[in-house]
Design goal:
The protein is 76% helix and 0% strand. It has 302 residues and is an all-alpha fold.
Length: 302
């Protein structure tokens, strides 16, 4: 009973993370009005998130700042190889193809998570997971829109790279959580991501835009909200969820994000809800429900 309650709590945290990630479009569009490039928005987001994570870690557990030197490559992988890599790949894919196609390629992440989980963690591939995976991916395709026009081999590789990088967080995060708290993991992950972002975001130009805006107060508060709502809360919630939920299962549950993004587009930006988008939302919800049904999973035959 206690174990089931723990898993349900973990699933709740991952659903919560997906809901907050789904709101990202609101903040990205607003910051874009100030002239910030996509990479600069990423840098603002991860840098401020690092400061907030560090403050939380300071209040929760000061000893959590201490990590082993041998684990630095692990946090480099989380910061550079996952957070920064998948974001850069995703925004690059957006410039090379339609937004819907880029989103579909990003949400191949549950496939990569499941394959890596079987390879590295020896997680069992069962019918429940496979069914939920198929439903979730089909739902993402319908929600994002069925396209593929103008896609090139280079664009395909970049798009798949975003999905692999996105999925890598679940794998490396699970490994890091074996030794460190979720607060330590998120703090150092974002610290390295922030350092990496400054190498590619043209920081002088970014600071120039901050210093020459007429409403610096609002911009600073909105930037902090962007970091808090699209990075701190969801990544901390997702990492907490990984403490009790298998990486492959977590990756599928997180596909609730595009569903939330679609609903926000309808409510906030008055975007139309198509029949296909509605069907996609139902498929994603079905996948989440299936993964949280009680009962033993039946392994698939090999």
């Amino acid at each position: 009973m206690a174990e089931t309650r723990k898993i349900n709590k973990g699933s709740f945290f991952i659903i919560l993370a997906g809901c907050f990630w789904g709101s990202m479009g609101i903040f990205v569009r607003r910051l874009g009005i100030y002239g910030f490039t996509s990479i600069q928005i990423v840098s603002i987001r991860v840098t401020l998130a690092t400061l907030i994570f560090a403050l939380v870690l300071l209040l929760k557990d000061r000893k959590g700042f201490k990590i082993s030197l041998r684990d630095i490559p692990l946090f480099l992988g989380l910061g550079f190889g996952s957070i920064l890599f998948f974001t850069v790949c995703y925004f690059t894919a957006i410039t090379m193809m339609s937004l819907s196609t880029a989103a579909i390629l990003l949400y191949t992440s549950p496939v990569w998570i499941m394959l890596m989980s079987v390879l590295f963690f020896r997680e069992k591939m069962d019918r429940k997971k496979v069914t939920a995976l198929v439903l979730a991916f089909a739902g993402c395709v319908l929600v994002s829109g069925i396209s593929g026009e103008g896609i090139t081999p280079a664009g395909l590789l970049v798009g798949l790279g975003s999905g692999i990088g996105y999925g890598l967080y679940s794998i490396l995060g699970t490994i890091a959580l074996r030794k460190y708290s979720s607060y330590t993991v998120t703090t150092y992950t974002f610290l390295f991501a922030a350092i990496g972002s400054f190498l590619i975001c043209r920081p002088a130009d970014m600071f120039y835009k901050f210093s020459h805006t007429t409403d610096i107060g609002f911009l600073m508060v909105f930037s902090l909200l962007t970091a808090l709502i699209t990075a701190v809360i969801p990544f901390l919630a997702y990492t907490l969820g990984l403490e009790s939920v298998e990486a492959s299962k977590a990756g599928i549950i997180a596909t609730i994000e595009p569903m939330v993004a679609t609903l926000i587009g309808i409510v906030v930006f008055s975007e139309p809800l198509t029949i296909l988008s509605g069907a996609g939302i139902l498929l994603i919800l079905a996948a989440v429900v299936i993964l949280n049904l009680k009962g033993k999973s039946v392994p698939t035959s090999s």
